[in-house]
Amino acid sequence: MKNLKKEFPVTANYTHLNTAGSGLLSETLLDFRQNHDLDYLVYGSVIKDKQDKFISGVRKDVGSFFKCHPSRVALVPSFSIGFNFLLDALPSKTKVLLLQEDYPSINWPVEARDFEICYAAIDEHLEENILQAVEREKPQILCLSLVQYVSGVQIDFEFLKKLKENFPDLIICGDGTQYCGVEEFDFEQSGLDILGASTYKWMNAGYGNGFFLFKEAMQEVLKPKAVGFASIRGLYKEENEHALIGKFEPGHIDTLNMGSLQAAIQLVKKVGYSNITEQINTLKKQALEAFASRGLLDDFVTQRKVHSSIFNIKGDQKLFEKLKAKDIICSQRGNGIRISFHYFNTESDLEQLLKLI
User: Fold this and answer.
1) What digits encode the pLDDT tens for the residues 95-125?
2) Measured between alpha carbons, how far is 211 from 122 in angstroms, rounded to an integer?
3) Minimal CA–CA distance to 202: which of 256, 153, 273?
4) Which residue in 43, 147, 163, 324 could disulfide with 308, CB within 3.0 to 4.6 Å?
5) Is the dihedral of CA 132, 137, 143, 148 positive or negative?
6) Bridge-partner residues for 197, per DSSP?
7) Which among 187, 183, 203, 205 is positioned nearest to 195, based on CA atoms?
């Protein structure tokens, strides 16, 4: 992996092990944003005339990137906004399966509505817990993070695929905020019916952008209530006033923020997904072995076959302050310190962390 300190200037001054908290601003993204606002400054509302075409281009790139037809790609400011639209598209008393202690932006909106709710535990038997809950409770929809924000536990995608095959009527909705951007993902071939994500973390796309992807069958299942003038503006919406994505886009779509997502996708293509995944997997393997040998991880994490590049290591406030003082950026989550590795990190970043620990 080439040195990326120039592309991500923060890494020249800090050891950034906090992508799970926030991604970085790249030079590629900065160039786009500066040029976009310069055009706005010079041309004013003239650039508005090109908005629909521009947004259609972003939609096409997002769809191509995640293997989903662009007519089923909704562009949203954040996962939370899109997810609330989604929940309002479900009938009251819908039975929803959640994971205990999953990300608040998933569980809280569900728990705030008039749904029947059941739960599965997050531990080394996560997939078996979900299967048993589906068999026992017979939920209509499963909503879960693909990667857990506290522990870094990652769901087995093959399990989700088999789950969908065995329970075809079960709607499976995944939050990819802590996943999208670390490896290639084929939405059409996955077990997911719906994939949503904010893209300011692992996509390094800045704030104010995200997406929701839908399988074809969701057009008939979901009945969103949100609507606005933009619901029928642009490609795939003008020819179908009842288009599902239009109900997730009732208002103006910010070309600066959505263009930032497009620029971030272009950077990933430039670096190469294979290079990104290889670097993340290398660091993930080394970190898992190092943390486990020092007794820094919960037992259930080391017992799982699948894990992300997010780790919650055992550490108190004193250790956290020590790391901050040495310019290592991380987060306190749960009962420990959350460390996360992305492709701009290096083996020396891990070595420096281990020396301080």
Assistant:
1) 999 999 999 999 999 999 999 999 999 999 9
2) 26
3) 273
4) 147
5) negative
6) 211
7) 187
> For residue 341, what is the DSSP state?
-
Beta bridge partner(s), residue 311:
339
Q: Tokens for 155?
A: 């769901």
Domains defined for the chain, CATH in brackets: 10-25+272-356 (3.90.1150.10), 33-269 (3.40.640.10)
- Strand 310-314 versus strand 328-329 pairing type: unpaired
The amino acid occupying position 266 is Q
In the numeric block, the tokens 């562009």 are attached to 75
In eight-state DSSP terms, residue 18 is B
Cα 341 to Cα 291: distance, rounded to the nearest angstrom: 13
What is the CB neighbour count within 10 angstroms for residue 273?
Answer: 16
* Helix ranges (DSSP H) in 272-346: 273-293, 299-302, 317-325
Residue 344 backbone dihedrals phi, psi, to 5 degrees: -85, -5
The amino acid occupying position 41 is L
End-to-end CA distance of the chain: 26
Helix (H) or strand (E) holding 153: none
Closest listed residue to residue 279, CA positions, set 330, 339, 348, 342: 342
Rounded Cα distance, 342 and 23, in Å: 9
Which amino acid is it at 312?
Answer: N
**Residue in 206, 170, 255, 259 with CA at minimum distance from that of residue 23:** 206
Specify which residues 142 forms β-bridges with. Answer: 97, 172
Residues 232-275 have pLDDT tens digits of: 888 888 777 789 999 999 999 999 999 999 999 999 999 999 99
Beta strands in the chain (DSSP E): 15-16, 73-76, 95-99, 116-120, 141-145, 171-175, 194-198, 210-214, 310-314, 328-329, 331-333, 336-340
Token pair recorded at residue 119? 């739960």
